[in-house]
Structures are given as structure tokens and as C-alpha cells.
Amino acid sequence: MLSRSPSYRLDQVTPLAGRCRGTLIHCTFEAHTVEIPPLDEVVLLAANEYRLKRALFDFGWGFRDHFSSHPHPLHVFPAGNAYRWCKDGYADVTLLALSAGDLNGLLDELGHRNPGDGLWQLSQRGFANPTIYQLVTQFMQHASSASPRLMVDSYCAVIANELGQQWGARGRAGPAVRKLPPAVLKRLIDHIKEHLTQDLSLDELAAITGFSKFHFLRCFKASTGRSPLQYVGDLRVAHARRLLERTALPMDAVARDSGFSGADHLARAFGKATGLSPRAYRTALGGVGGRRRH
């Protein structure tokens, strides 16, 4: 829809393939009015920059001002409703559009009752939530059409849980955070290591523990100090480091054998973890094939 409006400039559009199907969009727009037909997706707008004084929305009973003066306001657009919006100035925004059925199912799994009603409550006015804003912007920065399912699933689960907490529909406090039993943690880590080159998913890892996805995320971090996504990334970088030290494999092969999508993906992750490019790391060892020569 937005691509057909001259008021919008779409800078990045990234399809998401995971537990929640959807799209991440980074775009800018000028002052405009637009009509949106009923959609199958729930849309979360995170404002990176707002140069406007009014944000008028009409969900069927006339325009109402949903403007929030927070530097990075959020807006929720519910699925299944036609609506209009009118913005009176420039904005730079990130849009996260998720299948309504997938998102409602995820919210229900996370323990948030009546997700349709809760999302409708959030749609009635812009609101501030720095945690959600940071998650959405990080998701946009890291996502690509080849993003691992584990990354997509993790971001969607945490964002969904934050939305559920925002409307306060949680029926009861979640279980106390505890560590995974040592035998379960070992079985899980062994599985990750054995399938390091595969596109691991949050569903797959949580199933090994027998916990719900969100409870698994909390218990895993309590056990390791890292999220599953970070932990898998650490293992992949460590494996790449061993290959750089012990073999003369080209970078594409090192990346592939370590679970990265390509040499560029390896370089970004390796540089972030070590401060060196893979090539510089290999060179610093003093010889092709890895080990320093004396």
C-alpha cells in the first residue's frame, strides 16, 4: 500500500520468515493523508524522527489526535480495520508488520489474554516504550531476507511480550526465573553444536527443554548469561576462529562451515566479537593454515 503513495519513500523492505510471518520497513514521509484498507497484519510504527504536531487517526468514528510528544513514540494499527491517518509533517519511521494470526497465537502462548482486545487498546493513542523502540530499531539494523529463524523468532517473541506487558493483560505473574537443569542444558548445547550450520529456530530449541518459548528464553539467559541468539553466535565465532587457526580454508568456506550465511556475515560477527576481521586474525597468527611459526 505505502509503495503506491507518493508521500512515502521506502528505504528498506525486509520480509521475515519465522514463527511470525511479516515485514520490516524503514521509510520516510512528508505531511499527507492516507487511507488504508483492512489488512491481515498488525502494524507497529516506531518513530525515529517526528517533525509534526498532530497525528490524526480515524478508525471509523472520525479523526482523533493520537500524537505523543515522546521523542520516539510508538503506534499500533490493528488488523481487520480500515483506517485513515493524517500527519502534518515529516517523519522517519520503522514499521514492523506481523501476521495477526501469528502474533495473536504468540501472545497467547506468552500468557497474554485476549490479545485482539489488548492490541486494540494500544491502537487508541501513541505511547512511549523505550524498550520496544530499541528492539524494533535493532531488529531493523540486523534483519535481512536471509536472517536466521532464531533471530527473527527471538525478536518477535520479546517485542510481543513487551506489547503484552504494555497493555497489562497478563493474567498472572510468570513463574520465577530459574536455571535450566544441568542435564537439560547439556542436551540443548550438544544439539546446538551438532546443528551449528543449520537455521535453528526458537521453537526447536524450546522443545528440547519442554518449556514455552518465553520461559525458555528467560531460563536460558539465567543459565548462560546470554540469549539463545547470542549464545549461538558465540559458538559460531569460536568455530570460525578454530578454522582460521588450523586450516587454510577460504573465507566463504570458513563462513559456511561455521553457520554463517556468507563471508560478509562472518566478517561482521567476527569483527564485533574480536575487534579484528577474519583475515586480519589469520594474518596475526603468523602463517597460512593458522599456527604461528617459530
Automatic annotation (TrEMBL):
Domain HTH araC/xylS-type, first and last residues per copy: 186-284
GO MF term (any one): DNA-binding transcription factor activity
Entry keyword annotation includes DNA-binding: yes
Keyword entries, A-Z: DNA-binding, Transcription, Transcription regulation
Coiled-coil positions: none
Annotated protein name in UniProt: AraC family transcriptional regulator
Organism: Hydrogenophaga borbori
